[in-house]
Structures are given as structure tokens and as C-alpha cells.
Amino acid sequence: MMFEIKDGLMVEINEFNKTASIALSPKATGDIFIPNFFEKENIKYKIISIRDYAFEKCNIDSLTFPEDSEIETFGVRCFSTANIKKLQIPAKVKTIDGCFIRIKDLQEIDLSSNNQHLLFHNNQYLLGKSDDTTNNFDILHFAMFNVEAATIPPQIKVIKEYSFYFHKKLNSIQFSPNSELRIIENNAFSYTKITDLLFPASLEEIKEQSFENASNLKTVKFMPNSNLKKMIQAFSNSKIASISLPASVEYIDDECFSFTPNLCEIEVSEENKFFKSINGDYVEMESVKNSGVFDTILIARRNIESVTIPAHIKVISSNAFQRCKKLKKIVFEPNSSLELIKNYVFCSFACEELVLPPSLKEVGSNSFSGNSKLKSIEFLSKSIILKDGCLNSCAVLSIIFQNADQITFQNKAMNGIPDNAKILVR
Question: I need a surface site. Which of 82, 196, 206, 213 has the fewest CB within 10 A?
């Protein structure tokens, strides 16, 4: 059952164990004090947690507690998009995973000196433990918004999601030579002003959108003895210009470099068994891991002007040639094996004419969208599927199907093409 404590502060009680949790309180504002108990009909309910999303979008000057507060948990996104100037953290709080996601304007953290679970390092970083039975604070949960040059403590193993999110003053990150960092979680450094990155050898995984919309990002490098294994959507929508991939990396998803118009230099260690650079123009990878068959194009440098797609290529990954605005010529070798062009592959290029090979079976969503210079596109396949928005807002005037027995147009495949465009089936 839900009740109001005071001024929009809501609480939900548990009759069975006589406990309570701060619930969704959208009207809470100003200076908020959370007491130890909520009393109803002479029964005291001990307040032990702040529920997920409890203070979402609230404007809070201060959130405070009594020194002997019983609260142990700050729920996931409990401060999401909330403007909070001062946050007090009581002695018993130990679970804070995800509570700082998208928090705004936090100017002061007052951590109880009796809290044995968390540490406010140098008044900059709020740290936690992966193992609460030790005294090793190896999780970085949140950094203050006034940090300009971040020096990550060497014992940190995980930088949590959204920990530096929208930190507009942050322009550099330093890792110590003996760094133990293993994981950078989702959106950890999104919307920052970082320019250059040199990751420590210990790093194993960079998760979704970690550096999304890093508008000043230029170079990304890894140590020669890097342990990096996986990158997922890590640099999407950033201004990354150069990256050197280490020998250790095994998995990079299709979205890792989506909407990166400045990425013009991509190096791959010659010792890497899963990716290889082709003359510095594009990166090939296996569609089936450990097969030894490099039949997929992952990513091309964005200033490429012409490309010949080798006959052994079966798949062109999503975003592979996206925003290659100087790309004027695409040629497919005879006896091409190409079967699949994924999403957003050739959007915003400079080709005027394009002939696709007979082996092609499917063209993904928005693969040719937004091409103002493309005038003619020809499909030589007997059977072809054009997925959603394939030619969306494309200036093409002539769409030709040669020898086609079956053509499948999915939802709005031709949406936005000129009214005078001709579709010819021969």
C-alpha cells in the first residue's frame, strides 16, 4: 500500500515484515528528508530502500537522512533525469547499481563516515566493492560533474554505466600502468569532451555506447599487450578519427562505428586472428568464428573514394560504408559471392550508378537511404528482398531488376524516392 509521508514523498509498506520503501514520488521537490520509519496506526515501518525510478525527473535541492538511517539500497534509476544538488548517503547503503543513470546537476555527495561499503575517493569518484567482504574498492559508480581530467584509480576493475555520462567538462582520461580495469559499461563516457584514449592492457570489454556522442574524440589506441576481447556499439555517433585494433580483440558488433563520419584511419594488428585490414581501406572478418574464412566486410575508412568488393565476400555488415561521402565507385568482382547487404551500409555516398551482383539475396533497412547523387541502381538477382526503407529518401531515378523471378518489397522500401523514378523489370 502507498502512503504520503510529506510534501509528495511517497512510501510503500510491507505489512508482513513491517518494512517500507520510498516509492515513486514525482511531486517531491526542494529539501527532502527521509526518516527512519513511517508510522501508521501506531505501527512503525522501517524504511530500508529507495525504489527504482522513485525520484525520476524531480528537482531536489537536498536529499538527506538521519545518521542512523536503515536504508541499504538506492534502486536502479531512482535519480534518473533528476536535478539533485546535494545527496547524502547513509552508513548502511551498499547497493547503488544504476542509481546514478542520467542524474543531472549533482554538486555534492555527503557520504557517511561510518559507511564501510562505499568510498568517496578524492571527493571525485564514488567507489564500491565487487566483494563486500574485502576492503578493495574496485567499482567506480559515479564521478562528479566538475572533473576535467580523470585519473582512474589503479584498483578499479569496472567503470559502471553512466558514471561519466554528460560530463561536459571531462576532456581526458588517464589510466595507470598497473591498472586492473576490465570492463567499461554502457554509456560510461557518453557526451564527454574526451579527445584521445589509450586504454590499459587489462581492459577486456567496452560495452554499448560507452563513448557515444563523444564529440571531440580523435584517436583510440590500445597497449601492445592488450587483453581486449569485445567492443559493442562503443563509438557510435562519435567523432573518432583513428583507431588501432589490438591482436586480442575477438568480437566487434555492426554498430560499434555507426555514424562515425570522421573515421578515416583503421589499423589492425597483423597478429589478430579474427580481423584483418585490406590495404588500410576496410576491415574483413569471419562470419563464422574460428572458420578461418574472412567473408565479411565490417568497416571501411570514411574517406575511401573507390572500392572493389572481392568475390569471396558474402556479407557487408551494417554501417560498413556509411557516411563515405567521397565514395564514387563500387565494383563487384566477377563470380561475386555477396548474399547480404545489411542495414545502413551505403547510405550517404557519392556514387551515381551501381550494379549489384546476381548472388545478392537481401538488402537491409536504409542501405541506400539519403543518397542524393545516386541516379541508377541495377539488381541482377533472380530473387531479391528489399527491406524497410532500403532506398528511403534516395534521389535514384532508375531502379532496374534484370532477370528477376521474385522481388519482395518490405514496408516502405521505396519511401521518399522521386515521383518520376522508374522501376523497370526486365
Answer: 196
Computed on alpha carbons and rounded to an integer, the radius of gyration of the chain in Å comes to 27
Confidence of residue 105 (pLDDT cuts 50, 70, 90): confident
Residue 190 sits at the vertex; the CA angle it makes with 186 and 194, to the nearest 5 degrees, is 125
CA dihedral 307, 310, 314, 319 (to 10 degrees): -20
Q: How far is CA 31 from CA 8, 61, 84, 239, 313, in A?
A: 12, 5, 10, 40, 62
> pLDDT, tens digit, for every residue of 302-318?
999 999 999 999 999 99
How far is it, in rounded angstroms, from Cα 100 to Cα 80?
Answer: 7
Residue with cell 574524440: 217
Tell me which residue has cell 549489384. Answer: 356
0.90 surpassed by pTM: yes
Q: What residue type is assigned to position 202 of the chain? A: S
Contact in structure between 157 and 182 (CB atoms under 8 Å): yes
* pLDDT at residue 1 greater than cutoff 90: no
Q: How far is CA 15 from CA 1, 20, 21, 46, 69, in A?
A: 9, 9, 12, 11, 20
